[in-house]
Design brief:
With 102 residues, the protein is of the alpha+beta class. It has one domain. 17% of the residues lie in helices and 34% in strands. It contains two helices and five strands; from the N terminus they run αβββββα. The strands form two sheets. The chain has a three-stranded antiparallel β-sheet with strand order 2-3-4, with no helix packed on it. A two-stranded antiparallel ribbon has the order 1-5. A hairpin with an 8-residue loop joins β3 and β4. The radius of gyration is 23 Å and the shape is elongated.
Length: 102
């Protein structure tokens, strides 16, 4: 797919990236009776949970565990994949966008 999107005729003002989502750590927190909860507010590593939104103070779940994910870009291509687009090209792109009816 990446090779096809970077074929000879490319769309102007597009970037194409081939990336992989890398999980750096995986852990979980079990929340009792989670199926009975309907509203969650997250505050850092804690969450306040309610069975019904706006009724009562809710319960606090401390020290939630989570997955840390990072996007690892393997290749990039297209017309604007990097900041190395010269000023004239940028001006042409902006001018063409201004003329496009929206």
């Amino acid at each position: 797919m990446f090779a096809a999107l970077n074929a000879t005729r490319q769309l102007r003002a597009t970037s194409v990236f081939l990336a992989e989502l890398v999980e750096t750590s995986v852990s979980s927190t079990k929340i009792k009776k989670i199926t009975e909860l309907s509203y969650f507010e997250y505050h850092g590593s804690d969450a306040r949970v309610w069975k019904f939104h706006g009724i009562g103070d809710g319960d606090v779940v401390k020290d939630l565990k989570h997955t840390n994910e990072m996007l690892d870009i393997k290749k990039q291509g297209g017309k604007l994949a990097t900041a190395a687009v010269n000023i004239e090209d940028r001006k042409r792109i902006i001018t063409s966008l201004d003329k496009t009816p929206g």
